[in-house]
């Protein structure tokens, strides 16, 4: 029987060989820039896409979500943001917009992402932006939101604090940003499904909780199919 000391010694020697063989490594692993739960969310969405799909991300931030999706599918990515961030993913094409009108023709994209954006808007502005997203999208919209089947007291407080903190930050970044007066766009699963179902061209809404793969329970995907 191999002794514990012998086994550990051989394992350590093997690990040292691998470490030396991979050092120095000229190219950083693409996935190493992302958190594991973000990769799991991207993988779930990528299963609903096909290679070659054109994908828009509205409010893309650094472009990280598109970069994550590109690890799983050969997509044609495009991001749009109010202001381009210096630490953005420079291999993801991005452009600016005014937060209301998307600078693309009707039906420009197979699918559109809108991640953690709509809850920062007042209801009329959220509906107007979503109508713009529908206009430029041919097939599918992936909405990721802070949502649960029901919000308890702690989550209602969290939503209020998040609305105020993020709203003040966005108002500093954009002078015409209006801080929402309440948490009307922090919706439960049922409320989001009903809201989305009332929007133009929406034929179905599938709800997928990311609670099992995300860091926190409130991350939820709403997979919206368009006519």
List keywords for this structure.
single chain, 227 residues, alpha/beta, Rossmann fold
What does this structure look like?
The protein is an alpha/beta fold and 227 residues long. Helix content is 35%, strand content 21%. It has a single domain (30-226), classed as Rossmann fold (3-Layer(aba) Sandwich), CATH 3.40.50.150. The protein has six helices and seven strands. Helix 3 (64-69) links the parallel strand 1 and strand 2. The longest helix is centred in the C-terminal third of the chain and has 21 residues, at 153-173. The protein is globular, with a radius of gyration of 21 Å. The model has no long low-confidence stretch (mean pLDDT 93).
Please give the structural blueprint.
Layout: H1 4-21, H2 36-46, E1 54-58, H3 64-69, E2 76-81, E3 94-96, E4 109-115, H4 123-136, E5 137-146, H5 153-173, H6 189-197, E6 202-209, E7 219-226
Parallel strand pairs: 1-2, 1-4, 2-3, 4-5
Antiparallel strand pairs: 5-7, 6-7
CATH topology: Rossmann fold
Report the β-strand fraction as a percent range: 15-25%
Number of strands: 7
Helical content class:
25-40%
Which radius of gyration do the C-alpha atoms yield? 21 Å
Please, what is the CATH homologous superfamily?
Vaccinia Virus protein VP39
Q: Which architecture does the CATH hierarchy give at level 2?
A: 3-Layer(aba) Sandwich
* Global shape: globular
CATH top level?
Alpha Beta
Poorly predicted spans: none
Which assembly state applies to the chains in this document?
single chain
Total domains? 1
Structural class, from helix and strand content? alpha/beta
Q: State the strand order across the main sheet.
A: 3-2-1-4-5-7-6
